[in-house]
């Protein structure tokens, strides 16, 4: 288990333990954290699990694939550096303490 | 004290109960699921789960503990057998349950082949529930022969999985082309070529006369006179809304359980959402079979059940995964009179559906940028010049910037 902190757009913080091997999206979903909708269930078909990764963590995550870049390009107010789709980020031991922030809305 | 009861534990039911709690409903809440597993995702059933790439537990929309933590009474393996709208009672598992409001999220049921033409032989499967997939999984062994009846998305996705696993796959489609009901010829052409390249034999304009075998299916007699030997059969010929319970309760049925803009049925205390419900949409009445709709419709109904009074506005989107190709669809192409194709790099392309000057829908193949741009244009009620769309030199970002409401004065002339 790895502790991940999800910060809602309104500033509410949720720190939860997520099983290694799941995705950051599944960690939010399984713990009922609002702000990550993940309508497609992690099939990489929508863009409703978008977050801004805390700047300290950006370089510690695996790089984005082209498809993720493309989906994020037209997400709601993407940040070229910090935006990620959480269904594409697998939880590893190295992500202990990861902090992500949700956008105002998901589209 | 009687509270809200939701019947049907698919995507719509799960979204509906979660939303009710989120919007502040704190009364009694019961979700009744016919299957013995908590609500799960269906889309992977014909994709990653069928292929064996996804664990069962990962399909669950929420961990089972979520329902208890939200004070939701999750009843698994229980079927509602009768609703009495006048008394606001329902029968479930030999018990009578009272409700103050009821939501029907009963989903849809797969069409099966009639027993008369061999539909009830062993080795004949449909793709709808977890149990269907678990039952057919042992059949998916390299080298075995599979016949798929129906060239819609479900059949094609199953064909992709089977071909990837080394099965010998034949798919028959009664219509002149695969995906005829849901897509333009350009999209059919793309997927025909894709499957052919993976060794799937596609027989379009070919229907099934009957399945042959004693006990277990052995062969299929096709409309072109040939007899095709097969080890097992998947039937993907669409679904019907699960309206039996509603119909028996005397609710209005009209291509599904008839609901108004808010999701209310003909009984003021009963609501319906998702696959099972038809609803008003742009001057007509439609029914949608998709995850995106099931979520949005259910969430809208949840809000309305606590008195929000919001009209549901559908923003349809769909996806399909076949081999390493992802198709994303924004909008509904019903009534289109022309399409333009925008070819991208390597295997990517997008098909843009228009009615007059109005962009209706886009099929984006391995092109998420086209999908995202089209989705935003369509959901805003805007459109964009098809000639610009077709021109590969036009940047998608530019299309989004110039998209505007259609010129109604021109359309009227």
What does this structure look like?
The complex is a heterodimer of chains A (107) and B (413). Chain A has helices spanning 24-30, 66-73; strands spanning 2-7, 13-18, 50-53, 83-85, 98-101. Chain A has 107 residues and is of the alpha+beta class. Chain A has a single domain, classed as Ubiquitin-like (UB roll) (Roll). Chain A has a five-stranded mixed β-sheet with strand order 2-1-5-3-4. Chain A is globular. Chain B is built from twelve helices and 26 strands. The model of chain B has no long low-confidence stretch (mean pLDDT 96). Chain B has helices spanning 11-22, 48-51, 64-69, 130-136, 153-164, 185-197, 244-248, 291-305, 368-379, 386-390, 396-402, 408-412; strands at residues 4-7, 29-33, 73-76, 80-84, 89-92, 95-98, 101-104, 108-110, 124-126, 145-149, 168-173, 201-204, 208-212, 219-222, 227-229, 232-235, 239-241, 257-258, 270-272, 277-281, 284-286, 317-322, 325-331, 338-343, 349-355, 358-365. In chain B, helix 1 (11-22) runs parallel beside helix 8 and helix 9 packs parallel to helix 11. Chain B has 413 residues and is of the alpha/beta class. Chain B has a five-stranded parallel β-sheet with strand order 3-2-1-7-19, with helices on one face. A five-stranded parallel β-sheet of chain B has the order 9-16-10-11-12, covered by helices on one side. Chain B has three domains: 4-109 and 239-305, FAD/NAD(P)-binding domain, CATH 3.50.50.60; 112-235, 3-Layer(bba) Sandwich (FAD/NAD(P)-binding domain), CATH 3.50.50; 324-412, FAD/NAD-linked reductase, C-terminal dimerisation domain (Enolase-like, domain 1).
């Amino acid at each position: 288990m790895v502790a991940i902190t999800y910060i809602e757009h309104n500033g509410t913080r949720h720190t939860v333990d997520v099983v290694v091997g799941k995705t950051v999206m599944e960690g939010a979903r399984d713990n009922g954290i609002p702000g990550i909708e993940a309508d497609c269930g992690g099939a990489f078909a929508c863009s409703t699990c978008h977050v801004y990764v805390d700047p300290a963590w950006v370089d510690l995550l695996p790089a984005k694939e082209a498809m993720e870049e493309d989906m994020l390009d037209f997400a709601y107010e993407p940040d070229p550096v910090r935006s990620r789709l959480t269904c594409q980020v697998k939880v590893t031991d190295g992500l202990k303490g990861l902090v992500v922030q949700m956008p105002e809305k998901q589209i | 004290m009687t509270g809200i009861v939701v019947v049907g534990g698919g995507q719509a039911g799960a979204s509906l109960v979660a939303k009710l709690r989120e919007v502040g409903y704190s009364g009694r809440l019961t979700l009744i699921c016919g299957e013995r597993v908590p609500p799960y995702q269906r889309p992977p059933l014909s994709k990653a789960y069928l292929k064996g790439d996804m664990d069962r537990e990962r399909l669950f929309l929420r961990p089972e503990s979520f329902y208890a933590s939200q004070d939701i009474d999750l009843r698994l393996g229980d079927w509602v057998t009768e609703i009495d709208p006048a008394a606001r009672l329902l029968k479930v598992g030999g018990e009578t349950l009272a409700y103050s409001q009821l939501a029907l999220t009963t989903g849809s049921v797969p069409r099966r082949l009639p027993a008369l033409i061999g539909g009830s032989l062993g080795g004949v499967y449909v793709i709808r529930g977890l149990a269907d997939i678990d039952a057919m999984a042992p059949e998916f062994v390299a080298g075995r022969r599979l016949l798929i009846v129906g060239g819609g998305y479900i059949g094609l996705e199953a064909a992709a999985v089977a071909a990837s696993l080394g099965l010998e796959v034949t798919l028959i489609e009664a219509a002149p082309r695969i995906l005829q009901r849901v897509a333009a010829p350009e999209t059919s052409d793309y997927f025909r070529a894709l499957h052919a390249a993976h060794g799937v034999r596609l027989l379009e304009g070919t229907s099934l006369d009957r399945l042959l075998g004693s006990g277990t299916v052995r062969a299929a007699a096709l409309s072109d006179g040939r007899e095709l030997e097969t080890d097992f059969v998947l039937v993907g010929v669409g679904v019907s809304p699960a309206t039996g319970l509603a119909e028996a309760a005397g609710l209005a049925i009209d291509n599904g359980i008839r609901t108004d803009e808010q999701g209310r049925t003909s009984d003021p205390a009963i609501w319906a959402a998702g696959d099972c419900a038809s609803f008003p949409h742009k001057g007509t009445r439609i029914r949608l079979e998709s995850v995106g709709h099931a979520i949005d419709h259910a969430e809208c109904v949840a809000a309305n059940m606590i008195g929000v009074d919001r009209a549901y506005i559908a923003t349809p989107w769909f996806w399909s995964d076949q081999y390493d190709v992802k198709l994303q669809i924004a909008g509904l192409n019903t009534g289109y009179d022309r399409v333009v194709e925008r070819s991208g790099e390597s295997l990517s392309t997008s098909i843009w559906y228009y009615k007059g000057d109005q962009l209706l829908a886009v099929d984006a193949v391995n092109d998420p940028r086209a999908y995202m741009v089209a989705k935003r244009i369509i959901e805003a009620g805007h459109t964009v010049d098809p000639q610009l769309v077709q021109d590969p030199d036009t940047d998608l970002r530019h299309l989004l910037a110039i998209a505007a409401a259609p010129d109604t004065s021109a359309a009227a002339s």
